[in-house]
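Chapter review: from sequence to fold.
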Amino acid sequence: MAKVCSVCNKGKMGGNLVSHSHRKTPKIWSANLHKVKVVSENGSQTKEYVCSKCLKSGNVKRA
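The token string follows.
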């Protein structure tokens, strides 16, 4: 399973690192994910990956 936020589906993002001489090398940025116990709609607890933005905004009910 890939590390993706279970709330907003945020995952890895790609791009280039650009040096002073403007040479480009590939780079991958990972989302700031945390493995958190989450209470689902039916009341059961599961461990899921959630990004810090969703945790701060209160989109997730923690166990």
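Two observations follow directly from the output. The chain has one domain: 13-57. The longest helix spans residues 52-57.
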